[in-house]
Write a structure and sequence with these properties.
Blueprint (H helix, E strand, L loop, with lengths): L1 E7 L1 E2 L11 E2 L2 H15 L7 E8 L7 H14 L7 E6 L6 H9 L4 E7 L3 H7 L5 H13 L5 E7 L6 H12 L5 E6 L7 H4 L6 H15 L5 E4 L2 E3 L6 H7 L4 E4 L4 E4 L2 E5 L3 H9 L5 E6 L2 H12 L7 E2 L6 H13 L2 E4 L2 E4 L7 H5 L4
Parallel strand pairs: 1-4, 1-11, 2-3, 4-5, 5-6, 6-7, 7-8
Antiparallel strand pairs: 8-10, 9-10, 12-13, 13-14, 15-17, 16-17
Amino acid sequence: MIGLYIHIPFCRQKCFYCDFFSTKYDADLADKYIDSLIKHSQKFKNKKINSIYIGGGTPSVLSSKQIQKLLLSLSNTFNLSKVKEFTFELNPESASKEKLIILKEFGVNRLSIGLQSAEDKYLKYLGRIHDLKTFCTCYDNAKREGFDNINIDLIYGVPNQTVDEWENILKKTLLFNSEHLSLYPLSVEENTTFYKNGIVTDDELQREMYEKTVEVLEHSEYIHYEISNWAKKNKEALHNTNYWRNLEYIGLGAGACGYLGKNRYKNIENIEKYINFIESDIDCAIENEYIDEKLYTAETIMLGLRLLYKGLSIKCFNSPQNKSALLECLKERTLIQEEGRVKLAKKHVFIFNQIASKFM
């Protein structure tokens, strides 16, 4: 069984920090795109799926009719009898009650809502088009419709933000009592408005904010199970955890990535070309990479070490090079070994890339 990721590359407005592939929503283009997604999915007819994630972009910017058409097609195409988790990303301003009802009706059992900040001034700074009040309405509606597994996204380390302000934002967000939290430091990537405007972040300040987050959440109900993710018991994100376990997944849509049969691929980042490729029965994957045993092992270690709570089996470190690197990290106490599993020491999260590179 494998995961299924579907990319919806439409937004009402691109956020100033976003480097994901997306464009402004157009109803006619979105209609054609949904038709192409459905046709593309036929390539994987009757595949057994154990998790689904519909992301973007902003999936909730689609019309109710478009969402309904897409979700109906999934049940007609894939074997969904073993699906444990079905996640749909929402932005507060586009998540109507009608859309929430449709999501519930078609089996979506987990929502990921992009709050990003509990302070309106930072929402405006980030280029978000909702305010906190709109988020509250969206969250309350989702709860009323019976959604009992909701993730909230937050961004910290915004320029001129203080540690105290971040702590306040975090504590305000905790009042919603959501089942999952994804907390990310602001990263300024190329091809973003922030990059073009010369915005820079402060690594040391972000580190202080991360440490404050760990301190605030340490005695809460949340388990710090992955570097950037906290969840209540049994509410860890199954689909994303499958990524960190280096398991297979199908990627549908323009700009989506997939990993099947030792091949990692990426679909073309152009909506019109994606539609034309699918309609002409041309392979839309423009990047393909064969994952040999050495690369697979290196990536399994790198991804698995992100899972702070469970880590990965010591059996993954079976080559002489990896055994040597592991012994070095254990000696430095950047990694710890417990009951046959290897984990990243939490206090060394901010040098994770440096540690992981020793196994590449």
